[in-house]
Amino acid sequence: MPHYITQPAGRAGGDFRIPGDKSISHRALMLGSIAEGTTEVRGFLESEDCLATMKAMRTMGVRIEQFAPGALRVYGVGLRGLRQPGRALDLGNSGTAMRLMTGLLSGQTFDSELIGDASLMKRPMERVAAPLRLMGARIDTDQGRPPVRIGGAAALQGIRYTLPVASAQVKSAILLAGLYAQGATMLIEPGITRDHTERMLQSFGCPVQAAHGEVHMTPVERLVARSLEVPGDFSSAAFFMVAGSIAAGNGLTLRGVGVNPTRTGLLDILALMGADLRLINHRSAGAEPVADIEVRPSRLQGIHVPEHLVPLAIDEFPALFIAAACAQGETRVTGAEELRVKESDRIAVMAEGLTALGVSCEVLPDGIRIQGRPAEAPAGEAVFAGGTIDSHGDHRIAMAFAVASLRANAAIRIDDVANVATSFPDFPAIATAAGLHLRAVP
Ligand SMILES: O=C(O)C1=C[C@@H](OP(=O)(O)O)[C@@H](O)[C@H](O)C1
Ligand SMILES: C=C(OP(=O)(O)O)C(=O)O
């Protein structure tokens, strides 16, 4: 089974471009496919999750050309131009693809079925199916899990809906179905979540207003194709923000990173912990803000992570837990039960790995307490013992423990790492260039 062997490194440094954003790449394919005209996408993330979405759109008759690395032409077929797939659409490991596609397919005239890998087949789908049914969609799940079967030709109505969980996937699924509904759709969010769908819909000509935790969308006759530049993925950059903070060295510069404020909770959390992070060269990529991020080594302090920052940093907790182990004192995370329904139960799996490397932690129902270094421990000393980590097939767990090798005193073996390719195929190469001693064994 593919695994990583890491050796203690201690120092990190360098200047890197961060590959394209996964969330935005999925959305560019979906909206480009149902727009009228040709959408040119640059900076597209060629990862397995996004390629699963690409394959699904092609199966439904959309022509998509990859004309250079990370550059696509999506020949939109219009809102009503998708064709019935001849088989179940396999969305691999991608929760985003499955949930957003459930919304999109609810508005089609044909029946469809969505499946995925072993991890995705265990993830909750009623969170999207239930509100979509309220709109008139016909959706079956297997006791709340995939396969998701969607009946065609449902007459959808816009809804006013309060989301029970802070979830951009649920919000986006409803907005995509809302494109096919009679009347407006209005959503109330319990916490701020990433707003890439709203921004992209707006730039494709569909009016979306968002303010004070409410999103309002009025369906349009057509979406108009629009060229897009995908910013670097903040969630991929996160591993290097932590690496640059916990390792010795001159620090790291991460170029072209998407800094949409609905994604950058980790910057606030690390700042509260005392990290030395600086955003420079602010610019924009279409509807999304972009910057370069400079990170320098720092002495981190444990904190209680403010709960309102949790949805803004939802994918960054595996990396953050590594930073917490290197901080002085205790770090406590609460209000983060959503971590239990990601590609793995990220609270349990991170706790298992931290414990295996000699870090003491206590699992809470909705979070974790992690004991960092005692006050008297010198900065920069090893925090992690060597050992073996089971990533449970979760890309972010694998990458987080690879970063831990910067403060380890012996080799760490990380098992079941193939899924790193779902979000960050270039991780081993960039990590090695940044100073990690990482060997990827196929
Ligand atoms: O909308 C998206 O692109 C995503 C939303 C988040 O999931 P939830 O909506 O389940 O919080 C996040 O964890 C996922 O990686 C990507
Ligand atoms: C949770 C994640 O992705 P998804 O829900 O799309 O599988 C992630 O990338 O951390």
UniProtKB/TrEMBL annotation:
Keyword set includes Transferase: yes
Active-site residues from the entry: 315
Q: Which residues bind 3-phosphoshikimate?
A: 22-23, 27, 167, 169, 315, 342
What this chain does, per the entry, is described as: Catalyzes the transfer of the enolpyruvyl moiety of phosphoenolpyruvate (PEP) to the 5-hydroxyl of shikimate-3-phosphate (S3P) to produce enolpyruvyl shikimate-3-phosphate and inorganic phosphate.
Q: Which UniProt keywords apply?
A: Amino-acid biosynthesis, Aromatic amino acid biosynthesis, Cytoplasm, Transferase
Q: Specify the pathway.
A: Metabolic intermediate biosynthesis; chorismate biosynthesis; chorismate from D-erythrose 4-phosphate and phosphoenolpyruvate: step 6/7
Give a GO biological-process term.
aromatic amino acid family biosynthetic process
The residues covered by the Enolpyruvate transferase domain are 10-428
Q: Which organism is it from?
A: Steroidobacter denitrificans
Reactions accelerated catalytically: 3-phosphoshikimate + phosphoenolpyruvate = 5-O-(1-carboxyvinyl)-3-phosphoshikimate + phosphate
**Entry annotated with the keyword Amino-acid biosynthesis:** yes
Q: What family does the database annotate?
A: Belongs to the EPSP synthase family.
What does the record give as EC number?
2.5.1.19
Q: Name one GO molecular function term.
A: 3-phosphoshikimate 1-carboxyvinyltransferase activity
Q: How does it assemble?
A: Monomer.
Q: What is this protein called?
A: 3-phosphoshikimate 1-carboxyvinyltransferase
Name where it mostly resides: cytoplasm
